Amino acid sequence: MRVPDQVSWYADGMTDTPTLSDLVAQYIRAIPDFPEPGILFRDITPLLAEPTAFARALDWLAESCEGADAVVGIESRGFILGAPVAQRLNLPFVPIRKAGKLPAEKIARSYDLEYGSATIEMHADALSLGHRVAVVDDLLATGGTAEAAVQLILQSGAAVEQVAFLIELEALNGRDRLRPHTVDSMLIY
After folding, report:
1. Hey, where are the domains in the chain?
2. Has 77 been annotated as catalytic?
3. List 50, 63, 75, 114, catalytic entry
4. 3-39 confidence digits (pLDDT tens)
């Protein structure tokens, strides 16, 4: 994991210059038992409401995605993060959506996640042979969703350059499912 640079931002009462991780972490809210009992949900909506911290998080994600020639975001929070990252890098943005949400010809992948199963889809013509793709999402947990997204990208003939997350839940070992791809996470819990 890359260690974020020091930032010139000070919260009330702070005497030390916080890291970028410190800045972003204070806007991540932990919600117990959501969406079902036993899950500790990491809510990024407070971060989205703080323009300076959100912009800095997007800058970090964009730096993580340099070298790619397309950015893929995974529904739904991956759209919130991935689209502005793609814009910052002047790259195309490709959404990976839940089944049944895309209108044109698509490819699909089913997978298991920590509290059920799901299917995701991508337009069949969204990527092509030779594209180097960065995948962006808010959270890496067990890695099922990200692994399915990587498989869709590879199925299209593109290569996965990078997988970048705002948050990683290290104890769930999701990073292991994404090997040998490069994974970057700003905050590791």
Report:
1. 67-188
2. yes
3. 114
4. 334 333 444 455 567 899 999 999 999 999 998 898 8
Catalytic residue from among 77, 97, 109, 177: 77
- Single out the residue of 2, 7, 8, 53 nearest to residue 27, CA to CA: 53
- Architecture of the domain whose range is 67-188: 3-Layer(aba) Sandwich (3.40)
Residue type, 154: L
Q: 157: buried, middle or exposed (CB in 10 Å: 19+, 13-18, 0-12)?
A: exposed
- Per the annotation, the verdict on 114 as an active-site residue is yes
Q: For 133-166, how does the pLDDT look when each residue is reduced to its tens digit (9 = 90+)?
A: 999 999 999 899 999 999 999 999 999 999 999 9
- Beta carbons within 8 Å of 82's beta carbon, 6+ residues apart: 71, 72, 73, 74, 93, 95, 136, 137
Radius of gyration, alpha carbons of the chain: 16
Question: 88-100: b or e for each residue (b if 16 or more CB lie within 10 Å)?
Answer: bbebebbbbbeee
Conformational region of residue 147, where left means phi above 0, alpha means psi within -120 to 50, and beta covers everything else: alpha
Helix, strand, coil content of the chain in percent (nearest 5): 30, 35, 40
Taking the CA atoms of 104, 105, 111 and 117 in sequence, report the sign of the dihedral they define. positive
